[in-house]
Design brief:
Layout (H helix, E strand, L loop, with lengths): L14 H18 L4 H5 L4 E9 L5 E8 L4 H14 L13 E9 L3
Antiparallel strand pairs: 1-2, 1-3
Length: 110
């Protein structure tokens, strides 16, 4: 008996593809960022690094703070921005697994 041939492995995305995808995700998050008025009024500012996965269909999941701003309201606003920015553009057909993304959300008083 012949063994069943395995399907060929799916090609992995290039570093350029991943870089373009991550840049698009970062831009969408920046556009969805909302500075909490209570934090602005209190003079709170900072940078939050948020980690999450993006499914092949573009849905974010597992959103968590990788590096806190030091303010709970800004950290929560950064998580909301990641969620509100989705769904992201679906992956190319040859990419079948989720991608881990870390995004930076900056809250700066002007």
């Amino acid at each position: 008996p012949k063994p069943d041939p395995s399907p060929p492995p799916k090609p992995k995305p290039s570093q350029a593809d991943l870089s373009r995808f991550r840049s698009m995700v970062q831009a969408r998050i920046t556009g969805a960022r909302r500075y909490p008025s209570s934090a602005r009024d209190a003079g709170q500012h900072g940078t939050v690094r948020v980690g999450f996965r993006v499914s092949p269909g573009g849905q974010p999941s597992g959103i968590s703070v990788a590096s806190s701003s030091g303010y709970q309201s800004l950290d929560a606003a950064a998580r909301r921005a990641v969620s509100a920015a989705g769904p992201y553009r679906p992956f190319p057909k040859h990419m079948s697994s989720s991608i881990r993304v870390t995004a930076t959300v900056i809250f700066r008083l002007n």
